[in-house]
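Progress note, sequence design subtask.
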């Protein structure tokens, strides 16, 4: 090895050592312009290259770039064995309009995605509860873009623009650890609402009102355009590929939620929790899952589906801390549970439930790691099951009959450095798509076993 080569390698090693060894910002000294959890928290040399962040924050603007990559493999069952990669780069921009333009109590938010790869659920598993919560067709896509105005000393807020209901409604803080999509926006909503409802990857124009009479009580009401994509293409992600359709003429989707926080997270033994109760209504028309306009089974293939007016559903969510660290109220052991229902005559899924446990900060040598186990169950509606049975009678063939889908996920999120995590996970899908191939209704699907690794970066 030449002297110049050794010199170059030596300089690179020293630079890398200096970078990785740079002192981190103290917990109480993180600059306002630096997003919480950013790589720049532990590596200040990466926090603000060129001073752009500090300059923007002087005008009230903050940005963040996030990356998630999932390498997932279906080892058995489902459609077929195989491996798929899904990736997503996200740019987030937030602006304090009081600081930017002197507009008291106003804020702006926007985020956009660059989605890559192919989906394991779409190509290899065929299940309803998407294996990865970033899986979507490759595209550059605007998601949310809204303005919010706070009123009545912050006890009321109005948000308007392009909105995703999944960012505020039906959420569980403890469920956010898991990568299966149903632990975000539950599959009962994704399957029953037109084009999945206003949720990733399809937001839609809407208005959200928030009421905050006390620190413990919140009431949210959201009114959205009822179809984020429309029927111009069989695949809604192609119909609204870039998130720029801004549809406003479809029948509306209305959702409301009451949230109540309780418990004491300040004392060493304090345990806190949140309970949520919600309901939704869609004002469009929905096809009956079994009968045509003449009252005969759709299995006959001789009529159009009976159109039913409107749709509706109810749900409940609970997050409960069951044990916490004495010196950190945010870490410990928490459990969550959600339950939801919808009419079975016009919906694919009429009942849904999930539950899980989330453990964080309990390993002394790995205080920023978290791990957990969660289970989700979705019941295929009786009308849909009845249609499958009608097809058996009609054809005289031993066809599969859908019943339910269930997924069990276990995962561990390990922090490599502040802002960088690796997350191995395993999922077991019982009866993908209720037990029937979504592309070939003559074929039954076996239980699927999935192994994967997620990497997450925040800058």
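Output:
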């Amino acid at each position: 090895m030449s002297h110049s080569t050794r010199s170059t390698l030596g300089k690179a090693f020293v630079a890398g050592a200096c970078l990785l060894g740079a002192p981190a910002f103290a917990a109480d000294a993180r600059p306002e312009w630096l997003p919480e959890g950013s790589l720049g928290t532990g590596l200040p040399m990466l926090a603000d290259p060129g001073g752009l962040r500090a300059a923007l924050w002087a005008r009230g603007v903050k940005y963040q770039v996030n990356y998630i990559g999932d390498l997932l493999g279906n080892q058995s069952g489902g459609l077929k064995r195989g491996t798929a990669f899904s990736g997503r780069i996200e740019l987030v921009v937030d602006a304090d309009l009081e600081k930017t333009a002197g507009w008291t109590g106003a804020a702006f938010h926007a985020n956009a995605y660059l989605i890559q790869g192919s989906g394991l659920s779409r190509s290899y598993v065929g299940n309803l509860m998407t294996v990865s919560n970033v899986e979507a067709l490759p595209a550059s896509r605007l998601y949310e873009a809204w303005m919010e105005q706070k009123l009545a000393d912050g006890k009321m807020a109005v948000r308007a623009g392009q909105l995703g209901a999944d960012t505020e409604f039906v959420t569980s803080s403890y469920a956010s650890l898991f990568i299966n999509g149903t632990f975000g926006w539950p599959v009962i909503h994704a399957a029953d609402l037109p084009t999945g409802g206003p949720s990733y990857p399809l937001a839609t124009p809407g208005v959200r009102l928030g009421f905050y009479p006390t620190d413990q009580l919140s009431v949210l009401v959201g009114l959205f355009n009822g179809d984020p994509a429309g029927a111009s293409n069989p695949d809604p992600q192609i119909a609204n590929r870039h998130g720029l359709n801004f549809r406003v003429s479809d029948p509306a989707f209305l959702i409301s939620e009451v949230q109540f926080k309780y418990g004491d997270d300040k004392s060493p033994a304090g345990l806190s929790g949140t309970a949520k109760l919600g309901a939704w209504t869609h004002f469009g028309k929905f096809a009956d899952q079994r009968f045509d306009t003449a009252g005969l089974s759709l299995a006959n293939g001789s009529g159009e589906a009976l159109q039913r007016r409107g749709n509706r559903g109810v749900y409940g969510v609970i997050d409960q801390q069951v044990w916490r660290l004495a010196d950190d109220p945010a870490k410990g052991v928490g459990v969550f549970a959600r339950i939801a229902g919808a009419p079975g005559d016009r919906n694919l899924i009429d009942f849904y439930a999930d539950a899980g446990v989330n453990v964080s900060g309990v390993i002394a040598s790995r205080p920023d790691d978290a791990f957990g186990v969660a289970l989700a169950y979705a019941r295929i509606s009786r009308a849909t099951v009845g249609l499958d049975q009608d097809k058996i009678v009609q054809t005289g063939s031993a066809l599969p009959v859908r019943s339910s889908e269930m997924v069990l996920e276990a995962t561990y999120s390990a922090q490599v450095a502040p802002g960088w995590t690796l997350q191995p996970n395993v999922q077991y899908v019982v009866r993908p798509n209720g037990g029937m191939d979504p592309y070939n209704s003559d074929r039954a699907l076996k239980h699927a076993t999935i192994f994967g690794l997620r990497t997450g970066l925040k800058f």
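The first strand starts at residue 61 and ends at 76. Work on this subtask will continue into the next period as scheduled.
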